[in-house]
Amino acid sequence: MNSMSTRAERRQEFVLHSTSFIIFGIAIIPILNALKKTEATHIQVVSPNALSILLNDLYIVLSVGLLAILLGIVCAFYLEEWLPKTNWGRRWIESHVAILTGIPSVLYGILAISIFLSYAGTLKVIDDVPSAQNTEVIPFQRHTTLFLGEVLIFILMVMPVTIKTTQEALRSVVTPVREAAYALGASQWQVLMRHVVPIAFIRILAGGCRAMARAFATAALLIGTYIWHYTTETDGMSNRFLLFLGAALVLSVCSSTLVEIYNSIYNSNSA
Amino acid sequence: MENKIQISDLRVHYGDTPALNGISFDVHPNEILSIIGPAQSGKTTLLKVINRTLEFTPDAKVEGTVKLDGVDIETIGDVYGLRRRIGMVLPLPVGLPLSIYDNVAFAPRTAGLRTKSELDEIVERCLQQAALWDEVKDRLDTLGTKLSGGQQQRLTIARALSHQPEVLCLDEFSIAIDPVTTMRIEDVLKTLQKEMTILLVTNLVQQAKRLANRTAFFLNGDLIEIDTTDVIFSDTPANQATYDYINGSFG
What CATH number corresponds to the domain at position B118? Predict the structure, then answer.
């Protein structure tokens, strides 16, 4: 009697996954197209003021990153706490999240470059943005597209990781704890705020750090590649490379330390 | 005498799997009713129906009515209030990851009690009733999860008593507790009987015999027999299966 339902579930799963793969397959075509177009692009870096570029970068990365992390956490809470496991939308999102987290982060970098190149013309624009001394003025529309592209990449990269780690953190709060709290007459909100969030908080934080580290590392990698391939003027860029690499390192150390702290608090009495 | 709980034609399914097949019985006020039966006979499901925590199991379907003091529990709007009227002790001890004090004070706090002195009083009374006070009175602010298994189980009993329930459901509470402490808690249950109705699910038939006024025997989701404990444990219960189970012929 059970085999029927599992077979139906498997079929549903198959449909979900294949649609996801098809969508991503289609998405790759414009990316490749964009890359092809950029072959002949002439790239030259102008770095008027290294510090302002760095600050501007940090500002974008941190603000957009935090936004993406917050969105991811909210999304994960909604999926995990309010939608039933069998919900069609939840499974669709989860299968996409699984695919997005599985994609090597370098591919996101390529996607980012392709967006920059196809919409902004040359990479030069990235460095031009904060510069007042530079005479070339970027049209507002281009600037916005660029920024939106950056936001999109960040959200694509950071959000799935955050969603996944947050969901795992929420799942680590075992059902008996919730049941015990419910049996004492607590409302869903009280259970969430007083039991689930306090336990899961450290791991959610660790997940956020991990997601940001991933983003920073990818950015560093891209910048590194960019320095070695396209430019001789490396001053601002190598600073930026080091900054991003450092941030990625610090964040990953933070993330693993947080996980260690979590384990020492909650898993010590398992023996 | 009005019945505390009236259960009529209660059916529960998990998906396609039946867990309870239309059982009906009453629970009298201030009695200890023990529920015995092998695994998979629907004992825990029954308790979950009574405090409406079965609602968290996604594919569970409940038919039939359960009335508490004559009111159908499905029609009670304040489900959190309902759950506070019913104390629940689960088979495996679940220390909420809070301090010992906060564990016990949690339910009164969710009910809106804020006064420190009243909370102190409740915590001390409940811990004493659960035979845990002497062991933890000096370290009420340590994490409840750091206690040993048996202590945690007594902590859950204290927690279940903290909201002064009308019905106390114990689901195999003595699994993790040594016999001596079990006896102490059994004595407590006998005194608590004056204030509340106690539903005791147990795998230890001797415990049912020691404590219960009446005993119900469940088998594969059916209520085989419910009668006074003396009759159930006599040589002539109404059903042969009851006799066989109690005397260890099967199960």
Answer: 3.40.50.300
A2 CB neighbours in chain B (<8 A) are 15-16
Name every chain B residue with its beta carbon within 8 A of the beta carbon of A198. 97
Length of chain A equals 271
Nearest chain B alpha carbon to A180: B94
Domain that holds residue A195: 47-270
A62 in the Ramachandran plot: left (φ > 0), alpha (ψ -120 to 50) or beta? alpha
**What are the tens digits of pLDDT across the range B88-125?**
888 777 767 788 898 888 888 888 888 888 889 999 99
CA distance to A14, A210, B5, per residue, from A9 (Å): 9, 32, 40
Structural domain containing residue B164: 5-246
CATH number of the domain to which A198 belongs:
1.10.3720.10
Q: Is residue B251 part of a domain?
A: no
Is the ipTM, as predicted for this complex, more than 0.90?
no
CA distances from A141 to A53, A120, A148, B148 (A): 21, 10, 10, 65
**Contact: A183, B111; criterion CB under 8 Å:** no
pTM beyond cutoff 0.90: no
Mind listing the pLDDT tens digit for each residue in A118-139?
A: 654 444 444 444 444 444 444 4
Q: How far is A78 from chain B (nearest CA, A)?
A: 16
